[in-house]
Design goal:
Strands 1, 2, 3, 4, 5, 6, 10 and 11 form an eight-stranded mixed beta sheet that branches. This protein has a six-stranded mixed beta sheet with strand order 9-16-13-19-20-23, with no helix packed on it. A five-stranded mixed beta sheet has the order 17-18-12-21-22. It is about 10% helix and about 40% strand. By secondary structure, the protein is mostly beta strands.
Length: about 350
């Protein structure tokens, strides 16, 4: 055998053996290895800042100061201010933020429910560049009477009275605020969007002087208000039969009785949009816009029903006080000539109003 061929063969066998068994000796430290091909990197979404501000536009201070201006009414004024302090406030605890497609079915593309706990708050949100319709609603979490429904699409998103088997509903427990804003998000551009939220509900109070009359019980309801609010176009809708709102008795610490309810607005001639100005027009009077329904249980057990009809619309953000006094037969009288009064002595439930007595 040729020595040269023998040596060549041995070397070839050693090389093959080395190549096939080298994995046992490979060090896992690849820090000195040249980089391999990079994996695909997902596109980076630009960050945009959104500043949210609650704008409380209300006449509550003027209404209380004007209607309860005597020294004997001061304790009622203080009680109402305290009772409504969580309603007419520019403070939001929670906020619902939705961003919708402006084409096709207007579907929601992005959704967040951050905690706000402020009257103003800024959030940084990652959004791909495109056109959006942005809708926001605040203070829903603690309001069990109203819920956000149909919010998968912008055109159906609304604040709606929670469905119950009864026509009588509870008063709202928070001041509700909403906003709508078109947004054009640009690529590689620093953008800040300012979103202003305005109040979507309102309140009314009935203050009653006993004037020496004693009764067993008084219950007060209010009716004539919207049941839904469509956020995208800021329009209220009304059920065929208006819900009856159960008022809350406000402890005044004095002789005068006070009942207060919080709800959606009544009808008016302006398309029922949210109020963004401070001028509340109360001069355009027409037919009844909303009502107080009062049931007084007299000492002999009979019930007197009084319906107070108000021709002035009650707008979003607005507060209205009606003052009255108890008559000899348990009826509620008022010196306000703009308020219509209808009385039924010895009333019994004939099905006109399904209220809980």
């Amino acid at each position: 055998m040729n020595l040269r061929r023998y040596i060549y063969g041995i070397g070839l066998l050693l090389l093959v053996s080395l190549l096939t068994g080298c994995s046992k000796f490979i060090d896992d430290d690849l820090s000195d290895c040249p980089p391999g091909p990079n994996p695909p990197v997902p596109p980076v979404e630009d960050e945009y800042e959104l500043n949210y501000e609650l704008r409380l536009v209300t006449n509550i201070t003027t209404e209380i100061n004007t209607q309860l201006d005597t020294e004997t009414e001061a304790y009622v004024a203080d009680a109402l201010r305290s009772h409504l302090s969580t309603i007419f406030t520019d403070y939001a605890r929670d906020v619902d933020l939705s961003f919708y497609d402006t084409d096709n079915d207007k579907e929601r593309l992005y959704h967040e429910n951050p905690t706000m706990n402020a009257s103003e708050k800024s959030y940084t949100i990652n959004l791909p560049k495109r056109e959006y319709m942005h809708l926001a609603a605040a203070n829903l979490k603690d309001n069990k009477v109203v819920a956000l429904t149909g919010d998968e699409r912008s055109l159906t998103s609304q604040l709606a009275t929670v469905s119950t088997d009864e026509e009588t509903i509870d008063s709202h427990t928070t001041g509700l605020f909403t906003a709508r804003q078109s947004m054009r998000v640009l690529e590689n551009v620093d953008q800040t969007f300012h979103v202003k939220l305005y109040m979507a509900n309102c309140a009314e109070a009935l203050v009653i002087e006993p004037r020496g009359h004693t009764v067993k019980d008084i219950k007060v309801f209010a009716t004539g208000f919207a049941s839904q609010f469509h956020i995208s176009d800021s329009v209220y809708t009304f059920a065929e039969k208006s819900p009856v709102v159960r008022s809350v008795k406000v402890e005044t610490g004095g002789e005068d009785l006070c009942f207060c309810a919080v709800n959606f607005p009544s009808k008016d001639e302006e398309g029922m949009r949210t109020v963004i100005e401070t001028d509340f027009d109360e001069t355009d009077l027409g037919e009844t816009c909303w009502q107080f329904i009062v049931y007084v249980t007299c000492e002999d057990g009979t019930i007197t029903q009084t319906i107070l009809s108000i021709p002035e619309p009650l707008n979003a953000g607005q507060f209205r006080i009606i003052k009255g006094y108890i008559g000899d037969q348990g009826e509620i009288k008022t010196n306000d000539q703009m308020v219509g009064v209808s009385v039924k002595i010895d009333w019994n439930d004939g099905g006109t109003h399904n209220v809980d007595l």
